[in-house]
Amino acid sequence: MRWVAIAAALAVAVFLGGTLFVRLAPVDIAAWHRAPDQRSPGDHAGPGSFEAVRDLGDATSAEAAMAALDGVVLATPRTRRLAGVPEDGLVTYETRSALWGFPDYTTVARRDGVVHVWGRLRFGGDDLGVNRARVLAWMAETEGLAGP
To answer: pTM of the full predicted structure?
Structure first.
């Protein structure tokens, strides 16, 4: 009976340690705050990563779209701006899952009239489509807010 209690206490300690690690692990901002590689819309850099591209044709429309997208992203629960501002053409956001607090990082970059939105997970091997769904929802919500 004593071994069961010890095993249960050890399991709880490992669980709490993992939870604290996920929530408190330091973030290397330079590793996440970078423009996505040149890829086609919907290309995947790996499981848990998704990139969407919106070609607005000119830099003014892309700048307005990026500002509109910033408002939508920041209105998302458990999301904060990690680095950059829309005016600079490169912004990285952190969105945490509700239950465990797993961080996902989304970078929005503007290049020559094109807005790239790149979502990826930090921990694990697959996010079960969470980043793809989030990025597509943000893109749909900002469709028509700025530019064609």
So the answer is: 0.81
